[in-house]
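Hey team,

Filing this mostly as a record. A colleague (T.K.) asked me to run one chain through the structure pipeline before their review meeting, and I want the input and output archived in the tracker in case anyone asks later how it was produced. No errors, nothing strange. Just documentation.

Input sequence:
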Amino acid sequence: MTGRGPALPSPQPPPSGRSAELRRRFAGQARTGRPDLAALCLLVGAQADGTLDEAGLDAAQMELDRLAGELPFRPGGPREWAVALRELLGDRYGFHGSAADYRRLESSLLHEVVRRRRGLPILLSVVWMEVARRAGAPVYGVALPGHFVVGFGPREEQVLADPFDGGRVLTGSDAELLVAGATGAPLEPSMLAPADPLEVVLRILNNIRAWAAARPERTDVALWAVELSLLLPSHPARLRHERAQLLVQRGEFLRGAAELDAYAEVLAAVDEPAAERVRGQARAARALLN
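Output structure:
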């Protein structure tokens, strides 16, 4: 087959009622004592893709369970776990990533990554973590600058694997090269710390916001990604400003202006000149109604 067909349309969000219910569930899950990473990622997917219903959510969880059941029983130490995950997910099932995955919204949606076996480094790492966790592995995410990987075992025995590269087990120099390639800076020990599940979810939402920012016609995606981020217990305050600006871009001038004013009040306590600039943005938004 030669040539390239038209690009498939990106997923469309669900109706407002379904969206509100998903957000309530997302906020509740994010505020539990032990948030379920897979559940949160699947709720993000359902907010992105209106075709993902309850049966689809259950099916994705069941597939993660099934994959975990194919791992050998307690294969050994951290390296043996990493190798077992690579052999199962990378070699046998073909989970990996490529440059083209950065251009697809589906690459940030867990149910699509499970189905397509393709995705961004952080989503493939979620697959690795969730399959390994179900099998009893000592696994966690490692948020290296610019490239998410997974870690196995305690710090003194830590073994890293790169799911984007099919689960390749990394040497110390491999990790140093990944960090140097992304930042130009050396690898610091603090970069190897386990990532909190909510930090993982926020980073996924940041990736979705970046995808939408490059596509001005998808302010709908940018808006729900910001709004889900704001439901997390800890998030950057500047996201309130971003949400207000998105509302203005989408023609909701009064709502956007009101939120700009509210954000300016928060900002005034630490930076009055910046607050006044935001108030000016609010006035400009209201002027668009005239």
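Quick notes for T.K.: Confidence is low (pLDDT under 50) at residues 1-6. The longest strand covers residues 139-144.
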